[in-house]
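User: Show me sequence and structure for the first protein, then do the same for the second.

Assistant: Starting with the first protein.
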Amino acid sequence: MGREWESRRGSSGRLVFYAIALLGIAGVVAYFMWFTPCNSVKQSAAMARAQAYIDTHQQAFFKEWKFAAVTWQPHNGGVCGSLLVNGYVLDDADAEAVKATITATRPDVEVIYELQHADKMKWVEHVPQERRDEFGLPLKKDGSPGPLGDPTTW
């Protein structure tokens, strides 16, 4: 009879140890999930929201030829995942128009802008070919000047 009690006592001691260990692990996981400013789960969620925003708004954004050399992508930077808007614009007014257009749609993630100024020739070089064809950059298909004017005068 004495031995049965000893074996049960050892078994319950291990059970208590494992229960405390599991609670400790759960506490650490909960701390990192809810109380840290950024972790991989929060970053992945923010990047998924950025991708959803891109899928929803990008087509309307690129109807404007001035934005043809700008790209959008989910980014792991910022506070905890963000939308990266980078590329080339012709002047400060176009950069402000990019920011105003995106701000007007109220993205639910942080937006990081990396916009650079470029002259017309360099700007056209950074426009993807399918957008060049769509907007007639630098020349339309019929040979007439596109929205930037005659490229020989650049």
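Switching to the second protein now.
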Amino acid sequence: MMTLGTANMCSHLQKKLFDEDGEYHHLWIAMQDDEELTAVVRSRQLHIYRNGKKVLVLAGKSAPKIIREDPICELFVKLTKEYVSPDTKT
């Protein structure tokens, strides 16, 4: 089970991620079952890594950023429509 410190996380992102009707809640549930994924809160955003390589950045108000192809990103694209292309590096 993944746990996160939410003290430095944007309140909008907290709602999207942890509320059952939140836009990113389905990703949070999927992340719980994937032992290769880790997540860190940086600059009020959630940075998601697979095996140490960044794959996705979620923010509260700004558009999410897909960094590289990954099953969690495919799930994200399938369930949401707004994202930034992998050409945008963070």
